[in-house]
Design goal:
The complex is a heterodimer. In chain A, 37% of the residues lie in helices and 30% in strands. Chain A is of the alpha/beta class. In chain A, the strands form 2 sheets. A 6-stranded mixed sheet of chain A has the order 2-3-1-4-11-5, sandwiched between helices. Chain A has a 5-stranded mixed sheet with strand order 8-7-9-6-10. In chain A, strand 2 and strand 3 form a beta hairpin. Chain A is elongated. Chain B is α+β, with helices and mostly antiparallel strands. Chain B has 13 helices and 16 strands. In chain B, the strands form 3 sheets. Chain B has a 9-stranded mixed sheet with strand order 1-5-6-12-11-10-7-9-8, with helices on both faces. In chain B, helix 4 crosses helix 10, helix 6 packs antiparallel against helix 7 and helix 7 runs antiparallel to helix 8. The longest helix of chain B is centred in the middle third of the chain and has 22 residues. Classes of the chains: A alpha/beta, B alpha+beta. Chains A and B meet through helix 3, strand 5 and helix 8 of A and helix 7 and strand 8 of B.
Amino acid sequence: MKPLRLALTKGRLEKDTVGLFEKMGFDCTNLHEKGRKLILSIPETNMEIVLAKAADVITYVEHGVCDIGVVGKDTIMENSSSFYEVLDLGFGRCRFALAGKKGADFYEGYALKTIATKYPNVARSYFKHKGMDIDIVKIEGSVELAPLLGLADAIVDIVETGTTLKENGLEVFETIADISARMIVNIASLKLRKQEIEGLIAKIEQVQKSGSEQSNA
Amino acid sequence: MSRYDLVTPQGTKDLLFEQCSVRRAVQQKMTKKFSDRGFHEVITPGIEFFDVFDTSSRYLPQEIMYKLVDNKGRLLVMRPDNTTPIARLAATRLKNEPMPLRLYYHQNVYRVSPSLKGRSDETIQMGVELIGSGSAKADLEIIGMAASCLREFSPDYRIEIGHSGFFKILSESLPADRRTKRDIQKAIESKNYAALNDLLDSLEASEASAALKQLPRLFGGEEVFPAAAALFHDDRAREILDSLEKLYHNLKALGLGENIMLDLGLANSHDYYTGVIFTGYLQGIGEPVLSGGRYDNLLIEFGADLPAIGFGLDVDSVSKFLMEKDPSGRSRPADMLVHANEGYCIQALGYLSRKIAENNVCEYSCFDSVEDAKSYCKEKGIRELHIVDETTTIMGL
């Protein structure tokens, strides 16, 4: 039987996922000692782990070369495609926010607003829902610079603690959406390998549940 | 100025040799299947008026259509879908024919896909439309046919059935605006349990919202029916469930066994389906290769109130699947090269015809010298060189 292939977003989500797997009782030695390998196996399971950049996780899952993916809701919102989003994994929490210079009134005046962002699709759809026309400038690095330098009226970006904003004299105007890590599943895989995938989902849900019970106790 | 004379546009490709023969084989198999069942082929134009696809029962985003303008300034599109033009054709030119109509097609569709996603803008589909019958018998026939089409390519296939009515009925009573309902539908469609729960929890709790919460989880085998029956309290939803159960058991009785599955959460927001919907998968392909359903409200848009059901098969995906399964299918070299010595061209062509009649694949040599013909054979892997003169010499290579 072909192994069930999981694509993990490299970095923090990968670490959190490995933590989750360990709680589920999987042997994650290979994941800790991965070296430069990109495809890793989990012994005694029929699972294979692929490490990839966030947007690539979505691409691999959508095309069905990976059955399951772990990816942030931010990436899902920016790259709309078709797959099943079956589970909120609860870690990697942060939010999308609209932010700008402290004390400024973003909605003031009739001039077209300029938004700097790494997430043009998220920004566009947010303002489309508001029925507001905006200009979007795509920035690759520190988006916070754009309003400071006078390129943009505000930014749409991921905010975790808000420290960077604060230190640069910016503040959050509005929260756009809450973000956390999600488990996504290829459409055909969920149908063709239902038992395996549902088994895995149930196991994760169980660990999540016992985790939240412990923290409540 | 840069010229684009050496490449094809994004999303299109050239097909060579074995790719063509695999595709042709798929088409031949399907053509036989369809015509054996009394379906007749129709061909609709590659370009149509935009208005044909601007129907209220089917939503095709305008940005996915390739557009052109005719000499009167009217907007045309390259066929983005097969069912809609066939509905137009049936509702206009065939509306007085004895019903039902059994039609099949084998045509390209063109859709603008997002760049750099590895998708094709030009794909070829084959499918059937059974127009003029709204009966359960029609549903059974068409889904049974869909299954037998997939079985031609692999025993490891799945047909999954659902019904567009569940979402419609259950969401009717929800105290939510259209946008929220659409978001709920999207969450069901993408089995986004977290978002679905959030959306429904924000509304007043009701039997319908409890049922909708479970709807995307209602997929799998027979066990789905009792689970759904416990959740659905609306009589119409129960009626649909009963009819679906009958269909399911009939399909099992047809020998589909484990290959038939259920997904009551199939709720495609962009489709024109009004009744049973189904999707086909082949093990190893990450997306559906076949999709279909009942669309009883489409033909009325073109002036004929006729129920209909049909499906389309993605010939490209199936061809790719077959190529991967059997990569050995490389196109074979000819069996022989027939070379005419100076002055024997006519005799050689006669010889070639005779050899073809004996079921050989023969190439005719365009070379002047036997040496050149020989080295060509070696390069191409042709095993025999037949040299036509007063007598014929056969050189094995």
